[in-house]
Write a structure and sequence with these properties.
Layout lengths: L10 H5 L21 E8 L6 H15 L2 E8 H14 L5 E5 L3 H6 L7 H6 L9 H6 L1 E2 L2 E2 L2 E6 L1 E6 H6 L8 H14 L17 H6 L5 E4 L2 E4 L4 H15 L13 H9 L5 E5 L2 H8 L7 E4 L11 E2 L1 E7 L6 H12 L1 H11 L2 E2 L6 H5 L6 H10 E2 L7 H7 L1 H10 L5 H16 L3
Parallel strand pairs: 1-2, 1-3, 12-15
Antiparallel strand pairs: 3-13, 4-5, 6-13, 6-14, 7-10, 7-11, 8-9
Amino acid sequence: MHKRILSAVALGAVATLALAGCAGGTDAASTDGKGQELTVWIMKGTNPDASAFYDKVSDAFEEETGATVKIEEIQWADAHDRFVTSIAGGTTPDIAETGTTWTAEFADAGALLPIDEYVDAEKDLRGDLVEGLEVAGTYDGELYGMPWYAGVRSLVYRADVFEELGLEAPKTWDDIVAAGEAIKAAKPDMLPFPVPGDAEFQVYPWVWGAGGEIATKDGKTWTSELDSKESQAGIEFYTGLATEHGFSSAGATTWKETDLSDAFTQGNVAMMLSGSWTPNKLLETNPDLEGKIGAAVIPGEDGGIAPSVLGGSHLSIFNTTKNADLAWEFVKLVTTGDLAEQWSNETGYFPGVQSAMEEALASTDPLVAPFAEQMVDGGASVPVTPNFGAVQAKKTTNSMIQAILSGQKDVATATKDAAAEMTELLNQK
């Protein structure tokens, strides 16, 4: 059976790891890259402006290997199609950032090189990889994506509103409803908990939090479980925040996560699920929110932590590279050690190696610590299969939620239809 990945790393284990632990193994200086150039594609669109960071990486790489690197930024919105075209034409870069739901797809297409040999040659590196990212980068028993960074969604709320109304951060689903009702009564112009209809990763925490699954695998066959009793209960609660409790709006039926964030920034939203990378961005665009934002783990139905999608990116080596050893040295440089830690600090993402997470896990920052806890104790993976990209392209989950929110289908019908479509897509040859 497919096993959902929880507990990306144990807190106690992380605390004992030294940052230098992931930097052992092959000495980069032994790789002579003089006169060679690597081409690297990095995604753009959600990442912050990282020009200065890329310059530092390029300088460090040239100093260590003698090789130069050409970093090209690719818009997320166009990236998948560009990858597909380049794979078909044999014009892929040496290295590229691959989203966690793409890595298996590109590996299945034969476009990526397995990197197990390189990872295992580095002292203590294999055990230092963040589990959820390692699983997402593994296809047919081989690792094709080196964990680079991770992001996770947790509960973000207006701390000032909660304080004003004498509310605490919700610890159960009943708490969410109680807080929402109090906010609805006191702040009629504020949406207590909008339900964005075009935001897939907002849905799964409620499925998992109720004990359901997206899909499971038996042998080579995938079966969606969105229509299981448990999954239906989670989806019923989530959509009920809008349809039963009136915590959302009709307009939110078509919202993406960016729309949700914009509404929060404008002061129109009290609670939402949002990524670890968003609080800093919110404060940058609206400094008036300083001290007014709170964060907490997503509560399970009766307490604890509801799992949340552990998203993020890998760095993958493409089979068109002329020097895989040199490409690995670049991958290692960016994803481990000081540069991994710097990237995390500058972006709000979590690093892909446990040892670089020590600072985040020890943080007392109220806008960092809950996300770290969510990632460690409640980070989960979507089905790891090349076909999950087809599910996302079809917007199976989004269409399900929108059908419920708009009143076109009840939960039972919508989940049954979505499960059938997802099962078919996941098993396509």
